[in-house]
Amino acid sequence: MAIILGIESSCDDTAVAVCQNGQVLSNVVANQHVHAAYGGVVPELASRAHLEHIVPTVDTALKHAGISLTDLDAIAVTQGPGLLGSLVVGFCYAKGLASGLQVPLIGVDHLEAHALSCFADDLKPDYPFLCLTVSGGHSRLTIVHDAANMEVIGKTRDDAAGEAFDKIGKLMGLDYPAGPLIDRLAQGATSKFTFTKADIPNLDFSFSGLKTQVMYFLRDQMRLEPQFMEQNKSIIAASVQRTIIDMLMDKLDAATKSTGLTSIAIVGGVSANSELRNRAKEWSQSHNLELFIPGLAYCTDNGAMVAVAGYEKFKQGTFTSIDASPYARSKN
Ligand code: KG4
Ligand code: ZN
How far does residue 191's CA lie from ligand 2's centre (Å)? Predict the structure, then answer.
């Protein structure tokens, strides 16, 4: 039996969870509201807020799980990629805890933790599975052979899918992060405006062209009708969302055909998007595929994905040196 504490602090959320043999016992997130006024994450403010949140968030996660520190068998923690100052807070705290408790430290790559986030749910995929990771910092397609072996077969050439939502949302005057706001605005609206999808021949993505198209489209429309944005916000949101989801689904379909894999996972913050979830569900049913999209609590950054990924590494006996750096450079 193994009880693992998972700590995630790569960006602006201090997230901590406890899992027992891969089963999530608690999952707590302390969000940082300090960034709202700046339209994006301010790294220095993020690391300071992590310092304030880390101890109470760990305490709450232990309390919710009904265990104490001495019950822990290992400490799993995000070891890059992410904001260095933010990573340092979680990683150094985890190091101190692991050495004080004399239990193993398990460094987990943030993207690998996202890929394994569907293991936090009751229904878990078997290896190998095809994984579409779509977050604020990354968009990529991987074949997940096992917890330690993920083969990247496609990635974004510029912006990530979540970044496209956030940057286009900013053009629309929406707060950061704009992804969930565009999702909400688009619900019930018709996608009336057409934007061109990036034409990339392999399994790579590109979203920066869409951002530029939307910028010029809004500029031109508002020259003709200054109220255009306010009068059409939901339709713009639905049209942008449709284009992004089309691009993701096109590549996911192509990757499924080229790999022949029938177990498909969609993970990362953008996997919370309702249109992506619905479209992927219909697509998987019509193609006879097994689809795994984590529950909403495990899509955006969370401690549970670090804890369950840590458990996978614990089973393999893959531990991290107490001298390790908080930023293990991601392979991609
Ligand atoms: O995985 P995540 O929490 O952090 C990173 O690792 O980047 O992803 C955050 C991203 C943000 O860009 C946010 O706008 C996007 O996920 N996001 C969404 C939705 N919820 C979060 N994008 C579209 N629709 C959503 N419902
Ligand atoms: Zn993330």
Answer: 28
**Nearest protein CA to atom 13 of ligand 1, as residue:** 179
Residue corresponding to tokens 């992506």: 276
Fold observed for domain 3-118+298-316: Nucleotidyltransferase; domain 5 (3.30.420)
Look up the pTM and report it. Answer: 0.95
Q: Give me ligand 1 centre to Cα 268, in Å.
A: 7
Question: Which atom of ligand 1 is the closest one to the Cα of 301?
Answer: 3
**Site to substitute for ligand 1 among 135, 175, 274, 275, most atoms within 8 A of C-beta:** 135
Which listed CATH number (3.30.565.10, 3.30.1330.30, 2.40.160.40, 3.30.420.40) goes with 126-293?
Answer: 3.30.420.40
Q: Distance, CA 318 to ligand 2 centroid (Å)?
A: 22
Q: Indicate the SS3 state at residue 144.
A: strand
* Other beta carbons within 10 Å of 34: 14
Mean pLDDT in consecutive groups of 10 residues from the start of the chain, 332 residues: 96 96 97 82 93 98 98 98 97 98 98 97 96 96 95 97 97 94 97 96 97 98 97 98 98 98 98 98 98 98 98 95 83 44
Q: Is the dihedral of CA 184, 185, 191, 197 positive or negative?
A: negative
Token pair 């229904």: residue:
123
